Fold:
Amino acid sequence: LRTWRLYLEVAPPRDPLRARVEAAVPRLEARRCHPAAAGDRGEALRLLEALAREDGARLPRVHVALGDLHAEAGRADAAIRAYEQALALAPGSSADAKVYLALAALHREAGRRERAVAALEDAERAAPGHPEVRANLGTLYLELGRDGDALRTWRLYLEVAPPRDPLRARVEAAVQRLEARR
Structure:
């Protein structure tokens, strides 16, 4: 919904897509969700793709929403392209951690662990100290046989993770196992 409102703020009055978005906004406001959550993924995808080709191309949120829809539909390569476009438009924001995590998960699922690591290392540079980034990065390092990097990253995770973080117990156990092997 925020994406559509932003679009309406920047769209030229005669933009052909504007009428469709203006018609969709009241429905969305009534439901307080975007078209995909309302069950109309096809319409959401069509609107977002049109927006991404036009004035919305400059709005990272448009590409993130498009990436989310593609990922939910199992279109990993399209989701990756959309997430990478969003990050290219606004690199370095702490809000990007979610996008980097999604990007890394897609690469990992496709067996591209090195690219997943690169995405999470970029996330750590862009938003240092994000617990979920560090926890996942440590796991990927371990999967790649980089035990020292995994241990270092998980220790950093333990410094910033809240006591009740759902990943904390698993990471603490993994750190103990790695330390025992040294």
Summary: The chain is about 75% helix and 0% strand.
